[in-house]
Specification:
single chain, alpha+beta, 5-stranded parallel beta sheet, 17% strand, flat
Length: 558
């Protein structure tokens, strides 16, 4: 016998594990039943969380507001407010009569009275040279304030993609507004989202049909499972299995109640009612316990709920999970249809993708590599391997096929460079602090139409950063090393003697050499253990190393 409190704990764990996947499957299938409400609700959340809207081009899911008056608006008049406008406003806590001047983005417009509108404005951060950028995502919500539209002034701001910021015209060190106020006379707010009623009605019918089909499939398969259990295990186990299967059908029904009410006025009530589904397997177990007690098959000396056999428990759980079988079979059927195997859940989708159309998959993989992932030749290794000289020779002999990345220049870019450096967008900044290497430098410095490939001369530190943070690239990694640590020591000693390697004033040559030797050992360990490098070249012969580098570089074009 199994103590019911243990059974309850196990069942609750099962329920919590499958609840999210069930909610997603049924909700995804029934998207249309409440599409009008859900579209509106979803768009509202999108506006608050991550709006990226240009002043001159509001998002597609908003239409320009139209006045209620029939009188046409003058072309030289102030504009009507729109979602996504960059505006000037004043914070009342600024310490002066008007308050602190701020620049922000208009995220949401609400009508609070027949003639009054307010808007949610998200403050933006001044990053220099007229650029204003959104705060990090973790701070954005705290930067949103409610402002009256009458107190907002429109700004003709332009979004600069390379800086990920808005450029705001300045006048006397202050943001320059196009008008002191928005035009609010005749303004009725953003035009409501247009919904195709025919599409909603058609999808609603499909959802009702699908919901009914799922319930029928769960009931039918539960009946089949009950019959099989009756024939193989007897009447008692068959009835227990039927109890679990009935709980599974109920689970699907109450889940559909939640889906039916999503986005509607009854959403809260529907959600509360649908939570009954989590208790259904518990009720099934309790009913079996009570039946055992009444029939005298259980010993209740320790507690009232101490009698559910292992066999009965298994029948209930199997019966309850029967409702998932038709869901899984339906997804498999869809996966092998024309829609493709991407519809299959989890590892089943991966298996189906491998089993169906291996040639097509291979072709698709090649297209992905050739057209989406840009080849990058990353050459790394400890100091003393002559990798820089080898890279220089490769670039000189390649007839323009291999190029260096074009770096950001602090002197030429000014505020943009400071902005990128502050946001940690550089993989590396040179010692003097003038040049920086970013992801865009690596991906966009070579012209794929000309067959160019970027070559990165990286020490171990830079190689680690690139390998963990560079997406959109197919890295061909080449690692150089010497065949003994003593040869590294000799190379380092030669560099110290020639003055190429400077010994710090507070260290003697021996200490410095030992520290460098430890760094070399750590670098070698990384090169051997890391899976970043496709080619390991271990030699101190320059010509041999160069020939192997040429062969490895050829894989950038395969």
């Amino acid at each position: 016998m199994i103590r019911t409190i243990d059974v309850v704990t196990l069942v609750l764990s099962c329920i919590l594990g499958i609840a999210w996947t069930d909610a997603f499957s049924l909700h995804h299938s029934g998207t249309a039943s409440s599409s009008t409400y859900r579209q509106t609700s979803t768009k509202r959340h999108q506006r608050i969380q991550s709006p990226t809207i240009l002043y001159v081009e509001p998002p597609k899911y908003y239409n320009a507001p139209s006045p209620t008056s029939d009188t046409p608006k003058k072309t030289n008049a102030a504009p009507y407010p729109k979602i996504g406008d960059v505006v000037r406003y004043y914070d009342l806590d600024g310490g002066n009569a008007k308050g602190q001047l701020k620049v922000g983005k208009l995220l949401l417009i609400q009508k609070v009275s027949p003639e009054k509108f307010v808007g949610d404005v998200m403050e933006m951060e001044f990053v220099g040279d007229g650029y204003y950028a959104e705060f990090p995502s973790r701070e954005r919500r705290s930067r949103i304030t409610v402002q009256e539209l009458e107190g907002l002034s429109p700004i003709s701001a332009s979004y600069v993609r390379s800086a990920d910021a808005f450029f705001v015209p300045m006048s006397d060190g202050q943001p320059k507004v196009t008008f002191e106020r928005f035009e609010l006379e005749g303004y009725s707010g953003p035009k409501p989202l247009e919904v195709n009623s025919d599409v909603v009605e058609r999808d609603g019918k499909r959802y009702v049909e699908l919901k009914g089909q799922l319930l029928r499939d769960a009931a039918l398969l539960g009946a089949v499972g009950t019959l099989v259990t009756l024939l193989s295990k007897g009447v008692d186990d068959g009835l227990v299995y039927a109890t679990g299967a009935l709980a599974g059908v109920g689970y699907v029904y109450f889940l559909s109640v939640k889906t039916d009410t999503v986005g509607s006025l009854g959403a809260k009530l529907g959600n509360s009612i649908s939570n009954v589904r989590f208790a259904l397997p518990i009720f099934a177990l309790l009913s079996v316990s009570i039946k055992n007690i009444i029939s005298g098959d259980a010993n209740i000396e320790s507690s009232l709920f101490s009698t559910v056999s292992a066999e009965q428990f298994g029948c209930i759980i199997l019966g309850f999970l029967t409702y998932r079988v038709p869901l899984f079979l339906r997804r498999i059927q869809e996966g092998f249809s024309d829609a493709g195997a991407t519809n299959l859940p989890g590892s089943a989708g991966v298996a189906a993708s491998l089993l169906s159309g291996a040639d097509a998959d291979l072709s698709a993989t090649n297209i992905l590599i050739d057209e989406v992932l840009k080849p990058v030749l990353l050459v790394s290794g400890p100091p003393g391997t002559d990798k820089t000289a080898l890279i220089n020779k490769l670039i000189e002999d390649s007839d323009g096929k291999f190029v260096r990345p074009i770096l950001n220049d602090r002197l030429l870019e000014g505020a943009k460079f400071e902005f990128m450096e502050g946001r940690g967008e550089f993989f590396e900044v040179t010692k003097l602090g003038r040049f920086g290497l970013s992801k865009d430098n690596i991906l966009n410095s070579a012209d794929p139409e000309k067959g160019e490939v970027v070559v990165i001369d990286a020490d171990t530190k830079l190689a680690k950063k690139i390998s963990s943070n560079l997406s959109g690239a197919r890295i061909i990694g080449v690692w150089f090393s010497l065949d003994s640590v003593d040869k590294f020591k000799e190379k380092l000693q030669d560099q110290i003697d020639s003055g190429k390697l400077k010994v710090p004033m507070d260290e003697d040559a021996d200490q410095f050499l030992r520290a460098k030797r430890r760094e070399v050992v750590a670098d070698i360990e990384y090169g051997v253990v890391s899976d970043l490098f496709d080619f390991m070249i271990v030699s101190d012969d320059f010509d041999s190393c160069y020939k192997q580098l040429e062969n490895a570089a050829g894989f950038c074009f395969r």
